[in-house]
Specification:
Blueprint lengths: L2 H4 L6 E6 L3 E6 L4 E5 L11 H4 L2 E3 L3 E4 L4 E4 H6 L14
Antiparallel strand pairs: 1-2, 2-3, 4-5, 5-6
Pfam families: DUF2442 (PF10387)
Organism: Martelella endophytica
Protein name: DUF2442 domain-containing protein
Length: about 90
């Protein structure tokens, strides 16, 4: 499967938001996908307003305050950003 075959009109993001621990994206075909926020270390410095100041792009989403973004494809494939470390869980 090539990148062009993966990125179709149905996979275009139409809505995106962050909750306390996850980023969520609704696609044009109605599916919603989510990933943990810790997968994207560049988001760690943003407050709630910054986390939800998201621009939709054809292939993904962009946070202007962080000057970074992620692709829908990377979310589907479970690709974490380099340096992403799962937070330690309380015992």
């Amino acid at each position: 499967m090539t990148s062009l075959e993966f990125e179709t009109e149905e996979m275009r993001p139409v809505k995106a938001w962050c909750t306390k621990g996850e980023v969520h994206v609704t696609l044009a075909d109605g599916r919603t996908i989510s990933a943990p926020l810790w997968w994207y270390p560049f988001l760690s410095g943003l407050d709630e307003d910054g986390l939800n100041d998201i621009e939709l792009m054809y292939e993904g989403i962009w946070w202007s305050q962080a000057d970074e973004g992620i692709s829908v494809k990377s979310m589907f494939l479970g690709q974490k950003m380099p340096g992403a470390k799962e937070p330690e869980r309380a015992a």
